[in-house]
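Why does residue order matter? Because the sequence determines the fold. Keep that principle in mind as you read this record.
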Amino acid sequence: MKRQITTFFIISLIVFELFGVILPMSFWITVLGMLGLSVIATVIFSVIVWQFSRHLKLVTQKVRQITDDQDETHLLVPSHDPLHELVQEVNRLQSQIRHQSHQTMRQENELETLIKNLPVGVLVIDRFGQLQIANTAVQELLHRDIRELPHSYLEEITQPELLAMINQVIQQQQSQQKMINFDRGQIRKNIRVQVLYSEIRPQHFQVIVLMTDVSDLVAMSKMQADFVANASHELKTPITAIAGFSETLLEQNSDPATQQQFLTIIKQESDKLVKLIDDILSLSRLRNGQPSELQLTSINLTKLVGKQLDNLGSLAQLNQVELQNKISTNFIITSDSTRLTSVLYNLIANAIKYNRQGGHVIVTAKNNDDTWELCVSDTGIGIPAEQQERIFERFYRVPNDNMQLGTGLGLAIVAEQVAQLDGKIAVDSKLGFGTTIKIKFKGTSVSNRV
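Structure:
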């Protein structure tokens, strides 16, 4: 109090010296009160400004965190805070951005999974020549294990024709497509390649490489063309014979013995023609998924095989091949007689045709634990190892200039009919030593059941 009075006294003296006026004490008390209020207002204002600045700084930090996706927590401020509405909007914006970010991430993961598992090979190269995407299929086609993307596509693409195609697309800025052959030792693949130039914006582009293995389609097309040629030959041969001998019979007065001989030949050629047409129709039904229902009956396999050997006896004599039925007596099984007969006929006929003079065809059967096995073996020319996987393909024939021509239908029909009988067929062959066709069926023969 003394200090305040002293201060007022000093100020009064200064005012008196300057202006010649003596101010009363009440005036100075009023001035002092006003100064105090000003100080208090300044302090309050400073606190408000500090708090506002602090909240504004928090909002600024939160906005930065939202853009950087660093923090998922919301800001909390009192409802009376001036920034309350702004903070609420920031929180709402954060939730919306987070939702969109998660949705985008999920879509990217789904797209990545889709591309990874596509049966078509996919490569994506950016404008800097960096490989950004290489899915599983393209790695298999290129025969490479591609890791640690991105890196230069030149490190992975070594096939000259494919590399030249990509470089040309980048230079010409124009998409291309062509068929490229990939050789891997003895394996040759036909790959349809599409190199697409995609300009995102000026000076920003991507090159997308799509690779599809069409080897099976090319092989099937070739087999179908071969089939048409072979079938035409097979059809022409009996028709020519029938026409020729028919004309001879009409033009000449042949003796009864000659007529009988010609008529026998016509009958044989007619049978061949009917058999070929039946095979074509049978394969057509099998390919179109129109097989008849199984008619399961009890079958004496020993007798059924014996009957087929008798039916093919003349063909065996013509080729000087001995037929042997080594199935135990009364080997009784349950199967579809029509299909099993066709399987046996085709297998035995094939074994005769592709045998050597003085060779043998042996038919055996045995029981396993819960299956029975049928085997047709020959002592013929055998099948090259690289051809064995394809002999059951439709229209396929093992190349051999010295053997009889066929349509490539027999074993294809056998494979289809075995599948309908719920069996499994396999080939065991050694070139120059013969072939064994093995078929396993579910169940066992009656003779071995207890």
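The CA atoms of residues 53 and 319 lie 106 Å apart.
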